[in-house]
């Protein structure tokens, strides 16, 4: 598949991506595992092959197991995630599928996440969910392919 637009070389999209990638430093208050699991799940929902490729490889590099990565898509039925990870995944799903339900993110999902994450971590989690939805949409709209991601590339981009 050929990309419609190379957003990683176009001067306008590169400038935009550098700004939002720099802002992504706020995610550092989240556990790396949570960050990668949430990023992977959002990317699966949005059908972003580039980001599924990237977050699978980055998570494996950080020590995540293939079993847990394979079960992210069915996390509700899997017994390999912590309660905090499950709360983050639920928030990520509702925050991504915001148009699928009239209530958006429910109070129950928010309150469960708040049991496991302090206010700064919640702010980082909300920012991560918003960020991933943005970059997923850019990649999907421009048909960025998955499979060629090289480990560590994202850290060197911004």
From TrEMBL:
Gene3D superfamilies named in the record: AhpD-like
Where is the Carboxymuconolactone decarboxylase-like domain positioned along the sequence? 24-93
Superkingdom to which the source organism belongs: Bacteria
Write down a Pfam family by its short name.
Answer: CMD
PANTHER family associated with the record = 4-CARBOXYMUCONOLACTONE DECARBOXYLASE FAMILY PROTEIN (AFU_ORTHOLOGUE AFUA_6G11590) (PTHR34846), BLL7811 PROTEIN (PTHR34846:SF7)
Task: Read off the NCBIfam families from this record.
Answer: ahpD_dom
Q: What is this protein called?
A: Carboxymuconolactone decarboxylase family protein
